[in-house]
Amino acid sequence: MQELSVRHLLGIKDITPQDIQLIFETADNFKDVLNRPIKKVPSLRDITIANVFFENSTRTRLSFELAEKRLSADVINFSSSSSSVKKGETLLDTVNNILAMKVDMIVMRHSSPGAPHFLSRHITANIVNAGDGTHEHPTQALLDSFSIRERLGDVAGKKVVIIGDILHSRVALSNIFALQKLGAEVMVCGPITLLPKYIKELGVKVELDVRKALAWCDVANVLRIQLERQQMKYFPSLREYTLYYGIDKKLLDSLDKEIVLMHPGPINRGVELSSDAADSHHSIILNQVENGVAIRMAVLYLLASRQ
Ligand code: CP
């Protein structure tokens, strides 16, 4: 059996193109399972997984939990808002207490960049990063590239623009790494204040004009403005942001080609995307969510064999 080169999935930066292809091929098989009347396999029957979420989540938490249940794992869920973290317990103490209950894998979301990397140096259970602050969100990038491959046949050679709040986005960084490892050309587009100073060092194109970016690309991955991570004003108002960077159906129809429209969610309808764009035939937003379960099944299954 082929194996991943890593014991934990902390970020796309740490994995190889071969790892990504293996995850995709495994996810193809699990996607077939998910389309059967009985959507469950016994692959992780003896494995216990804790979903440890220190930050809000809808898609990622539910998608991991469903993936774990489809693989027949035992699942426990932890949410910091209702936990003893509120009484002053440290991250390491919290996780060690969970592991004392004989947990094999930890899926963790945390607001601090590097939190899962820190844990990986102190515990032996496999760790999957479900988003660490503004750093990485590896399973989101995997399901995004998997969805491009599904819609366009391949990721290699495709032109993908990531539009919006690149500065605060773990989705942007993980997508840049994944797309480049798979041979895509990557552009970022947004107000200059929302582009990191180091962005060109990542080997991506930079475009400030959203119309030019859309005219260039095969795929546009649109991000929301992460107001919860912004300590200062990066643009005058959301109204102005929408005026210059908002994407609607009229703008998509004005292009002389079809492009694929993506969004990791949650969407702020009427800000970065209008409803008529988000719900148009260009959009594969719900396909991304569907593919997330198969991708997370593949990641958990492959990591479990590296215990
Ligand atoms: N895409 C994503 O991470 O969504 P959630 O924050 O709802 O998990």
TrEMBL record:
Keywords in alphabetical order, please. Answer: Pyrimidine biosynthesis, Transferase
Q: Where, by residue number, does L-aspartate bind?
A: K87, R170, R224
Q: Which InterPro entries does the annotation name?
A: Asp/Orn_carbamoyltranf_P-bd, Asp/Orn_carbamoylTrfase, Asp/Orn_carbamoylTrfase_sf, Asp_carbamoyltransf, Asp_carbamoyltransf_Asp/Orn-bd
Q: Which GO molecular function terms does the record list?
A: aspartate carbamoyltransferase activity
The family database entries (Pfam families) matched by this protein are listed as: OTCace, OTCace_N
Q: Does the keyword Transferase apply?
A: yes
- Per the record, what are the reactions this protein catalyses? carbamoyl phosphate + L-aspartate = N-carbamoyl-L-aspartate + phosphate + H(+)
What are the coiled-coil residue ranges?
none
The record's function comment reads: Catalyzes the condensation of carbamoyl phosphate and aspartate to form carbamoyl aspartate and inorganic phosphate, the committed step in the de novo pyrimidine nucleotide biosynthesis pathway.
Subunit field text: Heterododecamer (2C3:3R2) of six catalytic PyrB chains organized as two trimers (C3), and six regulatory PyrI chains organized as three dimers (R2).
Tell me the protein family, please.
Belongs to the aspartate/ornithine carbamoyltransferase superfamily. ATCase family.
Descriptive protein name: Aspartate carbamoyltransferase
Species annotation: Pontibacter aydingkolensis
